[in-house]
Amino acid sequence: MKKRPSKKQKELLSFIDGFIRGYGYGPSYREIMRALDYKSVSTVAVHVDGLITLGWLRKKDHSARSLEVVSVAAAASPYDEHIKWLKKEIKKREVVDSPASNKQTTVLREALEILDQKGE
After folding, report:
1. Residue 89 neighbours by CB under 8 Å, 6+ apart
2. From CA 25, how far away is CA 69, in angstroms rounded?
3. Which H or E element spans position 71?
4. DSSP line for 82-100
5. Domains of the chain as residue ranges with CATH
6. Which of 46, 100, 106, 115 is 20 to 30 A away from residue 52, measured at CA?
7. Tens digit of pLDDT per residue, the chain (120 long)?
8. CA distance 79 to 63
9. Residues with Cβ < 8 Å from 105, sequence gap 6 or more?
């Protein structure tokens, strides 16, 4: 079984996957750097190489724009559906200004924080 990617690695995988879906080819390291606000191309290379080593990314032919995501769905946290539900419930309760709603919102936010930490 593959090691699950970290939060930052999931962000990188998601960006690459979205880019490929949108343009039909992989992003350049410089495009990744700009989009994810990395400070250098070498930082991108380190992260990409790490994901290749873990088996989440591959380079089709070791040339530019040849990155391919092995599986974004598998990289998702097992808590993603719960996190989505919590965010939706928080939004519903935020519009109601009552002590009960405020207390529920606080509890839901605490649950969300716990799941976000476990999903990393």
Report:
1. 108
2. 11
3. none
4. HHHHHHHHHHHHHT--SHH
5. 7-75 (1.10.10.10), 80-118 (no CATH)
6. 115
7. 567 778 888 899 999 989 988 988 899 999 999 999 999 999 999 999 999 888 889 888 767 788 888 865 555 555 677 778 888 888 988 888 889 888 998 999 888 888 766 544
8. 36
9. 90, 93, 94
